[in-house]
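Technical appendix A lists one of the benchmark inputs used to test multi-chain prediction within the project. The record comprises two sequence entries:
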Amino acid sequence: QVHLQESGPGLVKPSETLSLTCTVSGHSIFSGYYWGWIRQPPGKGLEWIGTIYHSGTTYYNSSLKSRLTISVDTSKNQFSLKLTSVTAADTAMYYCARGSSTSAANWFDPWGQGTLVTVSS
Amino acid sequence: QSALAQPASVSGSPGQSITISCTGTNSDVGTYDYVSWYQQRPGKAPKLMIYDVSNRPSGASNRFSGSKSGNTASLTISGLQAEDEADYYCSSSTSRSTLLVFGGGTKLTVL
């Protein structure tokens, strides 16, 4: 059964870089599915951040694209997110999730438990 | 303001059926059959309930069903139970540069 776990700092200073890793267990990243990041500001709705395929091909939300890098480490069965020049608006619960096998911009299942990242000095 | 419009709240009594709408445009819901619905209980990660408009993943109750007409997708929950009380989000692929958009969420209260 596939399980995803996010890890990374819970507090990031404004203007610095937010870095998170998602470790996948019970399922190979090579399996033909897409893998994604989604975030949720406190008390607000969901926002798709981006998706990656095991080949390294990435798909980004255009609103974040200039600050965003998603990468994959197939040897560790992990994928990662880096968001530069963060502001308070980037404070959110960050989720990683397995995507569909047919499209980078479709459903996600299952999701990790999420990790709260606060941007504050 | 979310790209897909959902009612902020809906409510129903146990045993009743409710429907949550998700209204988009010809750039998303109206064009793509990649519409999904998620259930999110307080303090928990979202759970996929419906994908590709009307398909139900294993693990999702058969009391949940999805449909689409024009630019509006719908999630119907039949035989409401107390455990259905949660926030529900729709999502859709889009031809816009954002690629994937979510609705603002609907809070379901079981009376």
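The longest strand of chain B covers residues 86-93. Chain B touches chain A through 25 residues (CB under 8 Å). Comparable benchmark entries are summarised in Table A2.
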